[in-house]
From TrEMBL:
Function field: Claudins function as major constituents of the tight junction complexes that regulate the permeability of epithelia.
Location relative to the cell: Cell junction, Tight junction; Cell membrane
PANTHER family to which the protein is assigned, alphabetical: CLAUDIN (PTHR12002)
The protein's name: Claudin
Bilayer-spanning residue ranges: 82-102, 118-142, 162-189
Lineage: Eukaryota, Metazoa, Chordata, Craniata, Vertebrata
Pfam families named in the record: PMP22_Claudin (PF00822)
InterPro entries named in the record: Claudin, Claudin_CS, PMP22/EMP/MP20/Claudin
Top-rank taxon: Eukaryota
Organism per entry: Helopsaltes ochotensis
Gene: Cldn19_1
Family as reported in the entry's similarity comment: Belongs to the claudin family.
PROSITE patterns, per the entry: CLAUDIN
Keywords: Cell junction, Cell membrane, Membrane, Tight junction, Transmembrane, Transmembrane helix
Length: 210
């Protein structure tokens, strides 16, 4: 795969990952009512996310309510919120920086070395964005798992399990990490050749001096 094609594939993967992370952050299905257990009689399905909680009735009507207070939220929700916001900001700047540094764009094409460095910087931003998304989703999933399996008087079919937004978040993190890694492979070829030439020429120079 050529350098330009690799950059384009990495950019498209990272862009898809950022859009998926945005969808995961907005969706309220970070955890949902569990349907495990023997006697399952549920007329209302509960969903909770980072910003709101929803109740879906069997008639198809859905009612959502935003979380009232920020300070009254649990620590893992506040932490996941912060990580997702940081992830989206890093990904947004990565989108802008990568467009400038990609070979298929006309911006700064008179200096290909600097242009490649900018592409690498965009890839690093995408990698950091993917790591933040991965940390946020994994932290929330760990808390859901702990609350599901801990000993409690709450019946199993009244507890919460993984929601669809968590799987969207894991997919978003994977795409961002993959796209960012491909963009990080755009290190300036001129510098690589210069470093290789320097390593090859240094021993011969030492022999001539002796």
């Amino acid at each position: 795969m050529g350098g330009g094609a690799r950059e384009l594939a990495g950019y498209l993967a990272a862009l898809a990952g950022w859009m998926a992370a945005l969808a995961a952050a907005v969706l309220p299905q970070w955890r949902q009512s569990s349907y495990a257990g023997d006697a399952i009689i549920t007329a209302v399905g509960l969903h909770e996310g980072l910003w709101m909680s929803c109740a879906a009735q069997s008639t198809g009507q859905v009612q959502c309510r935003l979380h009232d207070s920020l300070l009254s939220l649990e620590v893992h929700i506040q932490t996941s919120r912060a990580l997702m916001v940081i992830s989206l900001l890093l990904g947004f700047f990565g989108i802008i920086v990568s467009v400038v540094g990609m070979k298929c764009t006309k911006v700064g094409e008179e200096d290909p070395v600097t242009k490649s460095r900018i592409a690498v910087a965009g890839g690093v931003l995408f990698v950091l964005s993917g790591l933040c998304t991965l940390a946020a989703v994994s932290l929330y999933a760990t808390q859901v798992t702990y609350e599901f399996f801990r000993e409690s008087t709450i019946p199993v079919n009244a507890r919460y399990e993984f929601g669809s937004a968590l799987f969207v978040g894991w997919g978003a993190a994977s795409l961002s990490l993959l796209g960012g890694s491909l963009l990080c492979c755009s290190w300036p070829a001129k510098e690589r050749r210069g470093q290789q030439y320097h390593r090859q020429s240094q021993p011969s120079t030492a022999r001539e001096y002796v």
